[in-house]
Design a protein that fits this description.
2-enoyl-CoA Hydratase, Chain A, domain 1, three-stranded parallel beta sheet, about 300 residues, alpha/beta
Length: about 300
């Protein structure tokens, strides 16, 4: 296996006797909230694994027993702020580049040559859903809680369990992969739209109903991780050409992947202007002052 000792935020180990199985753990305290260095390291890690011919299966998990990932670290909003007073066109150009780079780092999971099995435990909010949708197979613990929303990492952990700041409430669409990949994963469009529009929390049973996870394992992190590693053993014992061929056929010779890429690019282009909305600043202000946000209506056409 390649050397990953330089990694700080994404831990990579080969925990089994079969060293062709790699465990990738999200490892940014306190609640695996993603800032730019975190998602860039995640992308580079999967690109590096993909080039390693000795690896035959990857399990993606969290080092935190209570949180898989809590979404975006909203204290890391430097790319969204127009610090240099750029005109709208130049700021939009900058934002589009930022979103495309972000998308590419998360898509590294989908690009990975080896099958990627997600073992989800605890809280999985916002960006966690984008990440999960990029995996090949998703197992969930019975204690997992999902939502298309973001949490503030500056909240203490107890606040994280009781106070949620939703993506839909801060003007951030799930443009890093959820809205591009989840529709092809699920067969329940009505439920998917409900979850996207409301950002309400849902559990593992509903995740199975949605088609987002294929198995619910009773217990917590260690239980679902054990089940995912057992599956990885089965896959790793097969010829690598078997899963390489089947993954390619699953993507219908690239047609499905091309549709996802087009959708991601469209969302990046859309958000190059929408991320400049005053609603985002209003939502942050309302959250910090604990007052209801006051959003202006759309203009009449």
């Amino acid at each position: 296996m390649a050397d990953f000792t330089v990694n700080k935020l994404v831990r990579v180990t080969a925990p089994l006797e079969d060293k062709s199985i790699v465990l990738v753990e999200l490892n940014r305290g306190p609640v695996n909230a993603f800032n730019q260095p975190f998602w860039e390291e995640l992308g580079s890690t999967f690109d590096k694994i993909s080039r390693d011919g000795s690896v035959r299966a990857v399990v993606l998990s969290s080092s935190n027993p209570k949180v898989f990932a809590s979404g975006l670290d909203l204290s890391d909003t430097g790319a969204l702020v127009n610090k240099n007073g750029l005109d709208p066109a130049r700021q939009a150009f900058k934002l589009r580049h930022h979103v495309l780079h972000f998308q590419s780092c998360i898509s590294a999971i989908e690009r990975c040559a080896q099958p990627v099995i997600a073992a989800v435990n605890g809280i999985a909010y916002g960006l966690a859903i984008d990440i999960l949708c990029a995996c090949d197979i998703r197992y969930s613990s019975s204690s997992a809680r999902f939502s298309i929303k973001v949490d503030l990492t500056t909240l203490c952990f107890l606040d994280l369990l009781t106070k949620k700041l939703q993506e839909v409430d801060v003007g951030l669409a799930a443009d890093i992969g959820t809205l591009s990949r989840l529709p092809k994963i699920t067969g329940n469009e009505s439920l998917l739209r409900e979850l996207a529009f409301t950002a309400r929390e849902f559990g593992p049973r509903e995740a199975v109903q949605l088609g987002m996870v294929s198995r619910v394992v009773e217990g917590g992190r260690d239980d679902v991780l054990g089940a995912a590693l057992e599956l990885a053993k089965v896959i790793a014992a097969k010829s690598p050409w078997l899963w390489l061929e089947q993954r390619d056929f699953y993507c219908t010779l690239g047609i499905i992947r091309e549709m996802v890429e087009q959708s991601l690019e469209y969302q990046a282009t859309w958000n190059m202007s929408m991320l400049q909305s005053l609603d985002t600043a209003e939502a942050f202000k309302a959250f910090t002052t604990k007052q209801a946000p006051r959003f202006q209506p759309l203009p009449k056409l």
